[in-house]
Amino acid sequence: MTRAAWLPGDIAATNVGRFLAREKIGTFAELRTRSIDEPEWFWDAVVRFLGLPFATPYESVLDTSHLREYTDLASVQALVAASGLRIVALERRLLWFPLLDPLLFRIGGGLRSRPTARRALRAAKVPIPGYYNLELALER
Length: 140
Hints:
alpha+beta
């Protein structure tokens, strides 16, 4: 992990700090590792922490039955092999989500006329633990 550009003076006073305390996690590095290793736990914990309401309560955080979602690289490799193909190159990059998109969606009216400001705000991104963009080169 690269070094942070900025850290708060008192992490306990931030939402991340409160989340760490609620989940009994010692450091941000531990949170990051666990969120990648256990995405189902992470997203359920985030939803509960933020108190996000659902009209119908969810039964699962990660739907592994979706055709294009796989919980591990071995599943993708098995699918490729079962198709009679061979992976000759594979690149895996963590997916990143624009951190302020939900906020910008709500207040976006005033920012539509200021595309430079909107782009600058959308540049702040966070990784989506457990989700990757895979690029494969295959051969028969």
